[in-house]
């Protein structure tokens, strides 16, 4: 189950949308009339007038379920009620409406942020708190958690052009990122697919602070496409790829201690080092984490190339200690 809190600046338009949508069904209300959206909005507004100075006086949350889930109306009403209660939205008017116009069932929960006694209900961080509450309820009711976007279940036909552009951008970045060795390579791949990458710089410096993507008339910040596609998120993903290659180098170093073809081990390590040396373009070099990983890998590579100093299996006379003993004997003879 997913929670999403959306603006409800006009309770009239909100009530009209949730009640007049094809396939809508009012499951429960408290303090408002349910048979006419105009009367429902009128009831909400009348109570809001107890605190006329209260801005954003209405809460509008959407609870979306997995397409394979079809909970009963009773279960849906209970979940929505607990959702409001855990958000602290109690002793106030609300309306719970079910929509079945999309492949996934979802609920619209509208509530008055001015309670029945005329007190203002706190609305700080309702979006973030709503997500946490939805995660709790998902576990308690053994619903399917929303771990990541499932593009196979995305119905682009039901989206507007803005949403379609964002999802196509998500698919392009997701498909290309695993095959990129640097941010510059990702930029080039996306450019080939008609997506321009733009960077936000700090003041007049060359320090990158953010990234955005543009296709046609639509532009999105990286974090708007997906949280992991922010500039920091992209850096972490690319640095993780370098880290994994460092681990491969370390494994190769361990393998080199075993009897095997030394040339084969050398070629394996050299190939990994050469491939990762290409990841030090200016964008990635700005990442402290990526830089540390590269330093670690270069140190490992240098250590592997150094000849090991050991006297094991050498005849005694060729060891350092044997050499010194021989010199002492010769010195002693000369004194005689």
TrEMBL record:
Identification of the protein by name: MobA/VirD2-like nuclease domain-containing protein
Domain MobA/VirD2-like nuclease: 17-143
Superkingdom: Bacteria
Biased composition (Basic residues): 325-336
Biased composition annotated in UniProt, kind: Basic and acidic residues: 311-324
Pfam families linked: Relaxase (PF03432)
Region (Disordered): 271-290, 311-336
């Amino acid at each position: 189950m997913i929670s999403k809190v959306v603006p409800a600046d006009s309770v009239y338009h909100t009530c009209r949308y949730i009640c007049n949508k094809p396939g809508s069904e009012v499951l429960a209300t408290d303090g408002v009339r349910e048979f006419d959206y105009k009367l429902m909005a009128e009831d909400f507004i009348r109570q809001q007038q107890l605190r006329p100075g209260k801005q954003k006086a209405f809460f509008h949350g959407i609870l979306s379920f997995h397409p394979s889930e079809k909970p009963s109306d009773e279960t849906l009403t209970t979940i929505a009620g607990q959702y409001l209660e855990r958000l602290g939205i109690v002793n106030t008017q609300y309306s719970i409406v079910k929509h079945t116009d999309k492949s996934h069932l979802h609920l619209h929960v509208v509530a008055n942020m001015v309670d029945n006694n005329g007190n203002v209900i706190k609305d700080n961080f309702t979006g973030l708190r709503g997500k946490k509450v939805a995660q709790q309820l998902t576990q308690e009711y053994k619903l399917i958690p929303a771990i990541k976007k499932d593009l196979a279940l995305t119905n682009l036909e039901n989206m507007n052009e803005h949403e379609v552009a964002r999802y196509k951008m998500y698919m392009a970045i997701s498909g290309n990122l695993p095959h990129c060795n640097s941010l510059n390579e990702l930029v080039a791949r996306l450019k080939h697919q008609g997506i321009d990458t733009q960077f936000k710089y700090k003041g007049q410096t060359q320090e990158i602070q953010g990234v955005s993507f543009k296709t046609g008339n639509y532009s999105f910040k990286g974090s708007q496409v997906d949280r992991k596609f922010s500039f920091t998120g992209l850096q972490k993903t690319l640095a993780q790829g370098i880290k994994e290659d460092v681990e491969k180098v370390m494994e190769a170093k361990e393998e080199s201690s075993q009897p095997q073809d030394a040339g084969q081990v050398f070629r394996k390590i050299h190939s990994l080092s050469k491939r990762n040396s290409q990841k030090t373009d200016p964008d990635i070099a700005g990442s402290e984490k990526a830089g540390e990983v590269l330093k670690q890998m270069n140190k490992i590579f240098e250590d592997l190339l150094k000849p090991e100093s050991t006297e094991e299996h050498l005849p005694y006379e060729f060891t350092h200690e044997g050499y010194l003993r021989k010199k002492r004997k010769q010195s002693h003879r000369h004194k005689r």
